[in-house]
């Protein structure tokens, strides 16, 4: 199953996990991105015994909290029903809301039968992403907007009027350099805003369709093309360039404009 999230039919992360540890960390990362309190390789106490689960995650925004227990199976064979039976007991004895088994090679027929009419979900890496895709994009885009709010203001097509009195204190050469840096990163600032609000106003914003090519410019006008394959690629790309941009703004302005 090659599942994709709804907005723009995009994957969160196109990269296949390389091993069990990588699968575990990627699953935990998605939970953390959407704000769930998450631990890996956590020992839990059930009514029968102590058990270690690969990923333990809690959605504390809900009342009562929603608990997810996850097992990550990066096996070269399909997961059998015996694994589902054992994990179903753990989930039930602990009182978790959901148990997720994420498998590289899928599941045997008996495994699906064992999970039927239970709170156990059997998924591969991409189907797992699909379960949480609609929460992931709003959460991660809000974090980026909050983190780079100053950067967005610096690169906005209409510089806020409150900024110009501060710019007037600088020399013409310094203002010219500010404008060059602003032009260099304007597309990045717009893309961050688009990522945050594009899924809310689909009739106003162009949908993202991956893989996409993103053209970035230096302050000297030279450009290069970056090819991106998933939302994770896109987020990492925007974050890296926004950090680089803020370093250039801060170096030029000595952080005076943040005061």
Description:
The chain is an alpha/beta fold and 259 residues long. It folds into two domains: 125 residues, Trna Endonuclease, Chain: A, domain 1 (3-Layer(aba) Sandwich), CATH 3.40.1350.10; 111 residues, no CATH class. The chain is 46% helix and 19% strand. It is built from eight helices and seven strands. Strands 1-2-3-4-5 form a five-stranded mixed beta sheet, with helices on both faces. Helix 1 packs across helix 4, helix 2 packs parallel to helix 3 and helix 4 runs antiparallel to helix 7. The protein is elongated, with a radius of gyration of 23 Å. The N terminus and C terminus are likely disordered.
Tell me the layout of helices and strands:
Blueprint lengths: L19 H14 L3 E9 L4 E10 L6 E8 L7 H14 L3 E6 L5 H7 L4 E4 L1 H23 L1 H7 L8 H4 L4 H26 L14 E6 L5 E6 L2 H23 L6
Parallel strand pairs: 3-4, 4-5
Antiparallel strand pairs: 1-2, 2-3, 6-7
Helix pairs in contact: 1-4, 2-3, 4-7, 5-7, 7-8
